[in-house]
Amino acid sequence: MCQLYCSSLEWSECYDFSEGMKECEYPQLFSTESGTCENFTDVTCGTRHEEKEGCNYLKQKYIFRRGLCQDTYPSCKNKSDGINENPIRRPAPYFIICLQDRLIGGGVCEFDSFWGVRTFPFNNTCVQAYAIPKAEYSLGRLPSCNGTTGSYRYDDSPCDVYYRCDSGTATAVKCPENYNLNTVSGNCELNYPCN
Asked: Matching InterPro entries, A to Z (predicted)?
């Protein structure tokens, strides 16, 4: 395994789980060139097995031997590089950051003060809920346009937030400060009454 190395001068003294056998911290791998643990992007494993899952590192197997490893090290297997929804804490604003099928970080999408709503992980970034299609994410608010054209208010949004349909494509729009959507004209108007 590419994350394992022998700390002993004599390889003959090294075998699985011996005192001389050591393991790099996840997601590092052991470089035979430098003789140190390095970032996985800088190591060539050759014939050594390259483990990508944090829960398959021996240290994690021992620490989490009674389970719950995936809560700490969610899998990035077959996920795109960048921000992805945390598969353990969903649907929610929590995300994981993946690179080459490895977990390299995580966090929480922030509140979007301009739109006045929470953001969620979607398409490798944190996106405000009005711009996420309902059909693609349970917390999304953007309806389908179904071939319609025009400007429409969301069912339960402030009067300055609406979506525009152009040739069946929906886009979230926010009026400037002190402007609201005139649902008749389809434009933002200064101090337009909100009903």
From this structure: Chitin-bd_dom (IPR002557), Chitin-bd_dom_sf (IPR036508)
Q: Specify the pTM.
A: 0.80
- CA dihedral for 3, 100, 75, 127, sign (positive or negative): positive
pLDDT tens, position by position, 117-164: 999 999 999 999 999 999 998 889 999 998 888 899 888 888 999 999
Pairing status of strand 4-6 against strand 187-190: unpaired
Are 156 and 124 in a shared domain? no
Q: 13 pLDDT exceeds 70?
A: no
Same domain, 8 and 54: yes
Determine the Cα–Cα distance for residues 172 and 130; give it in Å rounded to an integer: 6
Residue 30 in contact with residue 5, Cβ under 8 Å?
yes
Question: How many domains would you assign to the chain?
Answer: 3
- What residue has token string 């996920």? 79
Asked if residue 12 has pLDDT above 90, the reply is no
Q: Assess if residue 101 is contained within a domain.
A: yes
Percent of the chain's residues with pLDDT above 70 = 94
Which three-class secondary structure state does DSSP give residue 5? strand
Domain that holds residue 123: 82-131
| Tally of residues, the chain | 195
